[in-house]
Amino acid sequence: MAENRDFFYRRLHSLLGVIPIGVFLIQHLLVNHFAVYGRESFEQAAGFIHDLPFRIVLEFVVIYIPILFHAILGVYIVFTVKYNNRRYSFFRNIMFTLQRVSGIITLIFIAWHVWETRIAIGLGNAELNYSLMENILTQPFMFWFYIIGVVSTTFHFANGLWSFLVTWGFTITPRSQRVATYATLVVFLIVTYIGVRAIFAFAYGA
Amino acid sequence: MADKTITLIITRQDSPDSSPYEETFKVPYRENMNVISALMEIRRNPVNANGENTTPVFWEMNCLEEVCGACSMVINGQAKQSCATLIDQLEQPIRLEPMSTFPVVRDLAVDRSRMFDSLKKVKAWIPIDGTYDLGPGPRMPEKKRQWAYELSKCMTCGVCLEACPNVNSNSDFIGPAALSQVRLFNAHPTGQMNKGERLEALMEDGGIHGCGNSQNCVQVCPKGIPLTTSIAAMNRDTNIQAFKNFFGSDHVY
To answer: Transmembrane residues, as ranges (chain A) (predicted)?
Structure first.
């Protein structure tokens, strides 16, 4: 293995979190949001995505490989930290720790979510339709598991967007970083609303 | 006032390899004491709170005016300079510990040589030697000099490394101080002639990508150096350098 590859891997990790994973996340939650308009509406939208040409290639290139890379390097990053929030309870240090905690929660959530939906469908144990999600989300435990999972994912995305802007050298001054904090907070609220609203639609009907 | 005392609980360690232990001291209070004057009092009369004779507590100090960085230690949980920390502003009992990021030499003295190694690694100097007289360098605008002066205040005290969650024994991250020094020397009109070399050093393993943006460093820096601004600026510069290396020019300077 070549030496001094860490810089490249860490930059790739930061990039993949936004493109394509972040873009996919928004797309995924938007499609789910069709559940709010009713059963047919959701199945039509999900059907469109499902019937995209070269779907399996798209899934691997846009979703599986980037998330797997991001997750494996991410877990390594999480466990090389000496957390010190008790001594240094500054806002950014709290966000730093929350980013790592939410990353782990998101990984557990995604693993379960993919197992229960995509893999189950792939193995022929489930069908891609409204009822699949309805059956999952009407169970109280799974409802809360999904709420926590989705909020953790959107937080990880929005706060990751903030550090993406720093890592790539877009926001350098303290002022621009502060404005980015507010901007990513708005992103968090909007994306969370879209995601959570769909969960409510599945659980309690449109 | 004569019988007023201050209590210090000091984490001590006899040698680099021995295990640490705590020892409590009571020191007579004087007005305007700093942590160092309390330590000097212990050195003058090395008797612990139980009245037992003990070895004097060992620590490092130099300038006594917060410009050398030698007397950094963890005071009531926060890494600070013991010369600039006043007893009157501290809650009692006062807990003194060595900075945990660095290997302990003895008691409160730590070995900060990794910081010096980092400065060597990133070439934190300006080469001006030639085989002939190179003449005067380019001039620097006064406003830029004033800005650069703020970055030059770094005294390699180690407080930013102590506060950084990513600088620890599991990671090879170089830490905030050296990253900011690259910005300082790359901004200098003569120093920028070696800009590429310094950026390349930051892109090696343990370099700038170890930063996780917890931004503790800028909060704790005793000299108020805009460390996170420096890190973000170096993020931009190393990215541009990386693109140049891959797509662009066939020379790096």
So the answer is: 12-36, 56-81, 93-115, 143-170, 182-204
